[in-house]
Design a protein that fits this description.
The protein has no helices and eight strands. The chain has 91 residues and is an all-beta fold.
Length: 91
């Protein structure tokens, strides 16, 4: 299981991915937390090939926030910390 954040400077899309769910699992409830507090309501991850995943659209988490995902039926939690990377625009 893993979490992937795409974005920068505290504004990210968050993706929860369960890489090896049981073959019978077609969908599963997933939660997102920020600094230990649940963000919104539980969502439904759906099977895409060999994985289950759900994507939360981009929103502002701020920097140095601990974002975690947890799937129902598994005791593992995946977390990552938002980071400030500065302005990387190319000229």
């Amino acid at each position: 299981m893993c979490i992937r954040m795409e974005g920068r400077n505290g504004w990210n899309t968050v993706i929860a991915i369960w890489t090896n769910p049981p073959k019978s699992a077609k969908k599963r409830t997933v939660w997102l937390t920020q600094d230990g507090d649940r963000v919104g309501t539980a969502q439904t991850a759906r099977r895409k090939g060999k994985t289950l995943s759900y994507t939360w659209s981009g929103f502002e988490q701020g920097t140095d926030a601990i974002m975690c995902v947890r799937f129902k039926g598994i005791n593992r939690v995946a977390c990552d910390k938002t980071k400030y990377i500065g302005d990387r625009a190319s000229f």
